[in-house]
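quick one before i forget lol
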Amino acid sequence: MAYLSLKVLDRDGNTICVRNGEDFVDLVCTRTYEEGDRIVLETSEKNIHVNLQVDDALGSAFVYITDNVSYEIPFGEKRISYSPKVFAGARHYLYAETASKEEVSRYRNLALNPADQHREVPCYPHATANVETRGESVFAAKNAIDGVRANLSHGEWPYQSWGINRQADAAMKVDFGRKIRTGRVVLYTRADFPHDSWWTQVTLRFSDGSSQDFTLEKTNRAQTLTFPEREITWLELGNLIKADDPSPFPALSQIEVYGYVVL
């Protein structure tokens, strides 16, 4: 049993609202968020799976947390990679619930995390990259694991993506925070043609030291990469070979990693 505390704090650390519970806690916050506000999940147990909803318009995320989590509510430029409905208005519904054994053992997309943040946090899966176009939020690595597959344009939500700023050695890593077993990855490359280019080949590198190359096509549809199952804690997408095309802008809209948590 985990004791959970869910709260909203202002920029000075003052508590706006808070609720506590055993294995489940929900919170209704009747306030228009202000810059500097953050959501905090505290738990008596670490290294647990949790269903976490930081906003009702964002939806629930199945995550693995290794410590207390602080979620910074986005404002300004950081806001445009989210739906206009997210964190809007003066009434918000949040919850956290420890996941059941049946949920944890389920076959699922283990890369999905709409609550990922653009900073190091003890909450997984977590996406990072060695480059993001101009440092703009609409091209951050976390956009590629938020569950939004829209790929026929680029820029503001729902067309946020991971942009590589034309960097030849661009690579993106998805860290799962614990060991998983997978043999299938699905990619949605951005397909805003002719603005976009595409990759003809990519490499998946795995935490066990292995790697595998895959051929891609010019398409807006899902491209499935299958391989012998591996037990890993992270994978990296790299060695991105651009098509011989006038556009210098290949990008990734979504990566999905299907498998099981290793218990």
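fyi The chain has two domains: 3-105, 118-261.
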